[in-house]
């Protein structure tokens, strides 16, 4: 399995630090933000220590890098022109940074219609993507993430993503990132009808368009439209379903990225679960005592 998690990128080591963190989890893939996801402040590419990071990753046998665009990008905003223009401009820059870092895809949330309705929001997303992808300086794919349907989020089902694909002129550069928590919270029955979900995805978009899987459990019942991630096997989706998705042959060559929450300890600290969750998925056996082991550092 190609398994990894979101890892940090900050401080003096930057991408080299990201590589070390991923290796420490026993991962063979990783995902990073190029800076804080809540703002547009970014270090110059020359300061990211990209080559050192890749040298370390290759030594560890890690070869799959995904970049996630910041949350502040909203291509669906048809109310405030400055926010839309910022989204277009900054997404172009993120594509350039992602390509410079050697990523295989840049994941982006499609956007929110901010109360103007899905029709207007989707048209705005299509307009924005057409502007972004006209820039020929980059060739890296842009992966639209499936969303949970919280608030005015767009991309809450495969139909909405398919409409975006149909409207974008350079859609050969578009891909999809499927998020298991988002799909579950959006109403898709992953537990009882994963094969049916796959057929629907293939019919509307195509399985070959899937570039990344965000593998997360959910704290919510199916269809809740809330987007609250849970640790693998401890939520409403369950370990057996998530393992089936991780091991599914259709996605064997693409990275599965964990975005599960840190586990709180009695000492008021929180502990990353990824080393343990990756090991559990590789073994294919759920450990109900996992959270205690994460907090106590038990191997």
Contiguous low-pLDDT stretches (5 residues minimum) are none
Q: What is the CA-atom radius of gyration, in angstroms? A: 19 Å
- Helices and strands, in order, run as EHEHEHEHEHEHHEEEHEEEHH
Measured between the Cα atoms of the first and last residue, the distance is: 21 Å
Q: How would you portray this structure in words?
A:
There is one protein chain. By secondary structure, the protein is an alpha/beta fold. The protein is built from ten helices and twelve strands. It has helices at residues 15-24, 50-59, 81-100, 118-133, 158-167, 180-185, 190-204, 239-246, 274-283, 290-296, and strands at residues 3-6, 29-32, 64-68, 105-108, 142-145, 174-179, 210-215, 217-218, 229-230, 256-258, 263-264, 270-271. The strands form three sheets. Strands 1-2-3-4-5-6-7-10 form an eight-stranded parallel beta barrel, surrounded by four helices. Strand 11 and strand 12 (270-271) form a beta hairpin. Helix 3 crosses helix 4 (118-133) and helix 4 packs across helix 5. The radius of gyration is 19 Å and the shape is globular. The mean pLDDT is 96.
Give the SSE map.
Elements: E1 3-6, H1 15-24, E2 29-32, H2 50-59, E3 64-68, H3 81-100, E4 105-108, H4 118-133, E5 142-145, H5 158-167, E6 174-179, H6 180-185, H7 190-204, E7 210-215, E8 217-218, E9 229-230, H8 239-246, E10 256-258, E11 263-264, E12 270-271, H9 274-283, H10 290-296
Parallel strand pairs: 1-2, 1-10, 2-3, 3-4, 4-5, 5-6, 6-7, 7-10
Antiparallel strand pairs: 8-9, 11-12
Helix pairs in contact: 1-2, 3-4, 4-5
């Amino acid at each position: 399995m190609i398994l990894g998690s979101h890892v940090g990128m900050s401080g003096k080591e930057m991408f080299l630090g990201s590589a070390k963190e991923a290796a420490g989890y026993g991962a063979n893939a990783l995902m990073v933000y190029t800076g804080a996801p809540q703002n547009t402040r970014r270090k110059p590419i020359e300061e990211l220590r990209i080559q050192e990071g890749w040298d370390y990753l290759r030594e560890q046998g890690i070869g799959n890098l995904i970049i996630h665009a910041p949350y502040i990008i909203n291509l669906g905003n048809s109310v405030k022109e400055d926010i839309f223009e910022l989204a277009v401009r900054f997404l172009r820059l993120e594509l350039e940074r992602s390509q410079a870092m050697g990523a295989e895809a840049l994941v982006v949330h499609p956007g929110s219609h901010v109360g103007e309705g899905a029709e207007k929001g989707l048209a705005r997303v299509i307009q924005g993507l057409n502007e972004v992808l006209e820039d020929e300086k980059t060739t890296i794919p842009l992966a639209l993430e499936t969303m949970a349907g919280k608030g005015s989020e767009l991309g809450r089902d495969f139909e909405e993503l398919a409409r975006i694909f149909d409207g974008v002129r350079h859609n050969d550069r578009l891909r999809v990132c499927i998020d298991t928590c988002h799909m579950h919270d959006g109403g898709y029955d992953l537990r009882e009808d994963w094969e049916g979900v796959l057929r629907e995805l293939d019919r509307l978009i195509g399985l070959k368009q899937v570039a990344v899987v965000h593998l997360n459990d959910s704290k919510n019942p199916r269809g809740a439209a809330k987007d609250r991630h849970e640790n693998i096997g401890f939520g409403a989706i369950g370990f057996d379903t998530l393992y089936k998705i991780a091991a599914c042959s259709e996605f064997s060559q693409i990275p599965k990225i964990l975005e599960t929450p840190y586990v709180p300890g009695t000492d008021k600290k929180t502990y990353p679960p990824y080393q343990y969750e990756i090991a559990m998925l590789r073994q294919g056996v759920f450990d109900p005592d996992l959270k205690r082991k994460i907090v106590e550092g038990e191997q």
